[in-house]
Design brief:
The chain is an alpha+beta fold. The protein has a domain of about 210 residues: FAD/NAD(P)-binding domain (3-Layer(bba) Sandwich), CATH 3.50.50. Helix content is about 35%, strand content about 30%. The strands form four sheets. Strands 6-5-14-15-16-13-17-20 form an eight-stranded mixed beta sheet, sandwiched between helices. Strands 8-2-1-12-19-18 form a six-stranded mixed beta sheet. The chain is globular and about 65 Å long. It starts with 5 loop residues before the first strand and ends with a helix.
Length: about 375
Amino acid sequence: MSAVRNVLVIGAGAAGTAAAILLAEGGVSVDLVDIKPDTGALGSGITLQGNALRVLRRLGVWEQVRAQGYGFDTLGLRAPDPNGTLVAELPDHRTGGPDLPATVGMYRPALARVLLDRAAAAGATVRFGISCTELEQDDTGVDVTFADGSTGRYDLIVGADGVRSWTRRRLGIDLDTTGVGMGIWRTFTARPASVTRTDLFYGGPCYIAGYCPTGEDSLYAYLVEDAQDRSTLSPQESLGVMRDLSTAYHGPWDDIRPLLTDPSRVNYTRFESHVLPAPWHRGRAVLIGDAAHTCPPTLAQGAAQALEDAAVLAELLLAADRLDDPLWQAFTDRRYVRAKTVVDASLQLTRWLLDRERGDVPGLMARIAHLVSEPA
């Protein structure tokens, strides 16, 4: 018998939707709510490492991800010279196992749709455009009031509501989310034939210039610069900045640049980071995903770690017969150090770039790949 009979999951990103799928499949009544009006999240593409794919297979959506995304097994390093010279082609680690690609790129809203459809098929009730306004716990459950005036009582609340989590604040948890000194331009466009994997350019006017194929006909491209206020730029001006910055990069970038024509596809965000000290629960509420830990995407592990949170939490809840200290200790033991290690490594890569220091990037990446190759 599961430790919970009914659960409210707040936040329909990767972590929340994965938790909803696994709990609903296990016979738990699940309500999944999100303040956003729909799945059309701002963004472009997402990079899914092998350990993320391992969880997606467990969720029953791997075949759809494979069909809609773009898999590859190598990473290219290129120079910011007039030819975009390929400096190295590195075999990437298949951290999800030998039968899964090392990496899949995918259009982010497409992944969201696949996961949400799976959650609904598993039996979860999904509601968008709704938020929580009150949350009151006692020894046996949690009473929740929603913005539309409706109420519910649940055995457990799962706060998967992102970096600025309402759930975290409502639980009285004070957590500093800090900028790391970098901002990133992202765009989504057509894929030229010259792009068949992620290539990274280090140096030039940007810290990183890269791209990732997200399908047979699509990719997302990104440029990482010093963090600055870009909020006053119009969409057309933002497109112009991204195009101008990209002119320093060649090779496949010369094929991508003419395709950067749609201002609505360009967005800019700053890198931020935090790790919530253990434990991540307060009574009958627990935080997962970006609500508990977030980091710059220098290792492309954000989605993977969020999915792992959800998988471990659901496994423990379905195997136990009550919420108690041993269950929460097991969750902490399996998630805290692993997630913090990934965050720390992502920040180390960021510091090396900011300081123009030649750190042991391949060694660091190999250590993290070894860590996440073992199931969480």
